[in-house]
Amino acid sequence: MDTLQHEGGELEWKESARWVKFEEKVEEGGERWSKPHVSTLTLHSLFELRTCLQTGSILLDLEGYSLPQIVDDIVDRQIADGLVAPDLREKISFVLLRKHRHQTKKPIHRSLADIGKSSNTASNPSQSRSMNDISDTPSTDQLKNKFMKKIPRDAEASNVLIGEVDFLDKPFVSFVRLAQATTLGGLTEVPVPTRFLFILLGPHGKTKSYNEIGRAIATLMVDELFSDVAYKARDRDDLIAGVDEFLDEVIVLPPGEWDPKIRIEPPKKVPSADMRKSVLNLNELGQMNGSAGGAAGGEDEELPAPHELGEELKFTGRFGGGLWLDIKRKIPWYCSDIYDGFHIQSISAVLFIYLGCITNAITFGGLLGDATDNYQGVMESFLGTALAGTVFCVFGGQPLIILSSTGPILIFEKLLYEFSKNNGIDYMELRLWIGLHSCLQCFLLVVTDASYIIKYMTRFTEEGFSSLISFIFISDAIKKMIGAWKYYPINRGFKPDYITAYKCECIAPDQASALGLNVSAPLSDDNMTLLFNLTDLDWSQLSKKECVKYGGALVGSSCKYVPDLALMSFILFFGTYSMTVSLKKFKFSRYFPTKLRSLVSDFSIIISILVFCGLDGLLELDTPKLHVPTEIKPTRSDRGWLVMPFGKNPWWWYVASFVPALLVTILIFMDQQISAVIVNRKENKLKKGCGYHLDLFWVGVLMAVCSFMGLPWYVAATVISIAHIDSLKMESESSAPGEQPQFLGVREQRLTGILVFVLTGLSIFLAPILQYIPMPVLYGVFLYMGVASLSGIQFWERIKLYLMPPKHQPDFSFLRHVPLRRVHLFTLVQIVCLAVLWILKSTFLAIIFPVMILGLMVVRKLLDLIFSQHDLAWLDDILPDKDKKKKEDEKKKKKDKKSVEPESDEEPNSSAPPPVKIAMEALEPVPVPVKPPTQNQTPE
């Protein structure tokens, strides 16, 4: 918006405000723009604007390619309509063609030419005349303006010109829509083509009124609904109807309860145009700030979006129909799944997930080695992770899912090994047949479209499962660090003044006891040799490990603690977590340019790991480090890389293994599909579709392959998959000043997953580098992954409500529609279910963990008996069959109410008259050469 001002005795148009989405004003000092803020308009200015549009000239689809031509057409129309006297043509044209001075960045030190500008302008007639010359091409300052980065692509400008002149006795008003957007040189601050102009010139004495009218039309032009009307309007009446529609939504703030000087911060989220269209009738306007006292009608009540999982889970009724549809759905995207991964953000995602995967592989590999007597160990875990993960990311239906070993599988392996050992059964052969049966059972589930059952899995089950996995990650990370107190104990009674009293020596034991021999038994030659070697040792020079190895005794007050290591481990652990969280939030800070903040946020985990690895190396403390196998060979020397299916167990075990395989299949199915539902949820805005049946097919294939090779079984890892999604989220690069970056979706591709698992396989050759990474740093990454996966979970937000007084609780939508006690009851049910799952997974009953996940679905079904469908719609999702029933009940309720309404004669005039509106559907679009997005107006 430009206002007419006197500068050095001459007239010029000076930029005073601008709108991209929110209003920015030139501050009183004139040297800077204000912070973007919500435009606060006076109701009177909107009515005056309506009057201006009723009485002024309206030029729609004007053919104009230069500002002088457009000005001539405007003045001609005013004269033709009898609004302006013909003798004022030259004066009006002279004023409208004055030079435009924009609020561009100026140097700190003003030049001498700038200082003397005001005094020299009046005395220099050539400069005075040059102010009337408006170039048709953008100036150098316009092209270099950094503000252009904030303008959305294909945006068009709406220019508002407001001024006072002494030759008019009544306002000169004109609204112009050009047939084709045209760049009008220096009229705009940035080289954006102009589509609309609003001109208001009037007599002196009403500056504030004119400015408020200008602010009103500028605010309307950036409103999505009104700009749509402005583009499609056929005549004056359509524009006025658009203003009336805007007035229908206006909310008045009482002057005694609000300070107009306060600039309202832009909201984090604004309602979409489609949502606003749906609530434009007066009956629903009361829902804008929430209904008072719950008096809103049941049929008009705003409801959340229904529970939908898409066509991927549609029951086809054909043999392998769902699998075939998954393949057809994914093939067109396969090439883009590769080249979409070529982005700098992918580098951060690969390094982050890679470190998480190798830490997981080492942890589960070590636990598997202990549980199976090293039939499966760290080496098998590394190779299995690399093989299964790579195959799944290349051929799977949802390559964003990360495969990994899970706790329930570990428990099953432990119980299976103990059963085999106690009954004289070959463990690897029995495990092979269980894997083959489970593979066939997975194929059966795939060809029968059994994944259809997932549509009955609502947010109640998803949140319970994901919360449990998140808490497992958090607790395991903390348990690992608490273990540091055991291996590196701290001397709590240490007194620096008595440091001279602290010492630790290795004392030689009795020779026979050192060998663990029976004194009465005769000594063998080997024992005699070792006995003589022990007598030659200098026990005072042995290390702690050597002293313990040879049976020596550690004597001294400082033998029971290790200085510095426990404390340093906790510093690395919490430091990595805290720094990662801080750098992730750095994107939303006010320091440094936006691109730098985004880059730091994307690489936050890598930066944190490098910083604390450097700190550990600088202090040179012997903290526990990452140990990676250096040779490709089985952990157990008496087994090979291929398991033979016959020869070691009775033949009937090949058939009987079907029963334990059924339990494994349930475990695999539930883990895989719940994780897939969480990854594919609509909040992630995935566009390439998913493949529940195709995913389960490849998991089954990998079950058979890993069983033949004696490798661990793999299934979707919920927390690591969520972390993968978070590391690939995309936001809008150019956002209007004051507008929060819009979440665009996830960078869907296969490249990051493939690289992660290829690097996992190559980790054996990277062992010399990886051995410098402290384990506490990786545990800090585990802690971050667990905590980060809890964000955005409604269950977690509802737990925090227990600790908040009602007046301090956030304005969640479900709190507006569901009584607080019902919210707490629903949350309590989820907490109890989570506690039961936690207890089960901590005992030998963890093997029935997948069955308990099915139990969550049963509990959710029973909640229909306790909670109304209305409450469940807000706190959870309505089950598919209940959703249909609820719609039928609502239709019936509406019919009943309509039949009752004619019988009531009370307050016949209580209903408000229908507002004057312009229906969006009734407007026929005007043919325009280039149709830009409606939200991208940039009024000057």
From TrEMBL:
Gene3D superfamilies cross-referenced by the UniProt entry: Helical hairpin bin (1.10.287.570), Mannitol-specific EII, Chain A (3.40.930.10)
Main location: membrane
Catalysed reaction equations from the record: 2 hydrogencarbonate(out) + Na(+)(out) = 2 hydrogencarbonate(in) + Na(+)(in); 3 hydrogencarbonate(out) + Na(+)(out) = 3 hydrogencarbonate(in) + Na(+)(in)
Ranges for domain Band 3 cytoplasmic: 2-260
Polar residues bias locations: 117-139
Molecular function terms from GO: monoatomic anion transmembrane transporter activity; sodium:bicarbonate symporter activity; solute:inorganic anion antiporter activity
Subcellular location as annotated: Basolateral cell membrane; Membrane
One Pfam family linked to the record: Band_3_cyto
Record keywords, A-Z: Cell membrane, Ion transport, Membrane, Sodium, Sodium transport, Transmembrane, Transmembrane helix, Transport
Gene Ontology CC terms, in alphabetical order: basolateral plasma membrane
GO terms of biological process kind: regulation of intracellular pH
Family annotation (SUPFAM superfamilies): Phoshotransferase/anion transport protein (SSF55804)
Transmembrane segments: 347-369, 381-412, 432-453, 465-488, 561-579, 599-619, 651-670, 691-715, 751-770, 777-796, 828-859
Membrane topology category: Multi-pass membrane protein
Keyword check for Cell membrane: yes
Residues annotated as domain Bicarbonate transporter-like transmembrane: 319-879
Highest taxon above the source species: Eukaryota
Residue ranges, annotated region (Disordered): 105-139, 883-918
Family affiliation: Belongs to the anion exchanger (TC 2.A.31) family.
Entry-linked NCBIfam families: ae (TIGR00834)
PANTHER family: ANION EXCHANGE PROTEIN (PTHR11453), ELECTROGENIC SODIUM BICARBONATE COTRANSPORTER 4 (PTHR11453:SF20)
Entry protein name: Anion exchange protein
Gene source species: Dicentrarchus labrax
